[in-house]
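User: Predict the structure for this protein chain, please.
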Amino acid sequence: MAGRARTIVLAGGGTTGHISPLIATAEVLRGDAAIVCVGTAKGLEGAVVPAAGFELRLIPAVPLPRKLTPALFKVPFRLWGAVRQAGAIVAGASVVAGFGGYVSLPVYLAAWRRHVPIVMHEQNAIPGLANRLMARRSAAVLVSFPGTPLPHATVTGLPVRAAVADLARQGRQAQSAQARAEFGLPAQGPVLLVSGGSQGARSINNAMWGAPGAPGARDALLAAGVSVVHVWGNANFPAGAVTLDGADGARYVPLRYVDDMARAYAAADLMLARSGAATVAETATLGLPCLFVPFPHGNGEQRRNADSLVKAAACEVIDDAGLTPERLVEAALPLLKDPGKLAEMGRAAQTVMLPGAAERVAEAILAVAGEPR
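Assistant: Here is the predicted structure, written as structure tokens:
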């Protein structure tokens, strides 16, 4: 190990997609530097980062309105206040590394004003505003996917947390039986994991659960002997969601949230999910085949995130507007009944997302800090 750096500041927050790669990188850097993480009170980082054992400092969130509204004129004042608070955190740091979310731009600007070198990591195939604005002012620009349009970018892949990296080394099959038992699933038979991310996804939940007078895919899958682990998202869990039994011992297990997604991945044969960068990276690293339903709003980054896996025949994509219960069963059931096809898709996915991204990002950060591992 090289000499211990004074401080490395890691900024990122809001959703799991920004927080998970931050924590994954922090886990690698833990022995090489004093780590300070920066987030906002609005994101999941307030609970997740301290739980992972890292110091978290908070600054105000400064969202940028997408339309011309009176709130837009308040942004400069709010941003300046956040930059001032971030300045006190980054003062004396060896390097600042940003992982996206509302917190990144104030931290980047504070670091730039104080001549602290910046490393940015862009999770998505289409970069966010903060990274587009600050890329040319950064000492290193790291991206998850080839072709991400940022200047002087280096493709590192997307850091995944230690639990996912460990599972990839062991192989999902080695942990499958134990993981299934933890979720109350049968030891045999196909398992579909359903999740719209930390906030949930209404279209995915509706396709699985159904609506009054219109049954969802859940009943058809249970009748076909397919078990389902359905992660609803914290804000979406319905009062009537209970565990149900189906044919051949299959079970429907509804959950509000899963703290350790590595265990859910280990239990599954196929996943239905949004194609957020973290989900794409984690499932591809593990070789877990997916049906991706890209978020239909924003700048289209979720569809682009899945492109490399589509080209490798490692996943299938369903348009959000076309995700009906019938379409879900039509797409999922043939795959779940064909273990050979699933194995082929899993192997293809692992050729796209190479392991070791957290180590590569950590090495780049330490190199900018002047302390290579």
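The longest helix spans residues 75-90.
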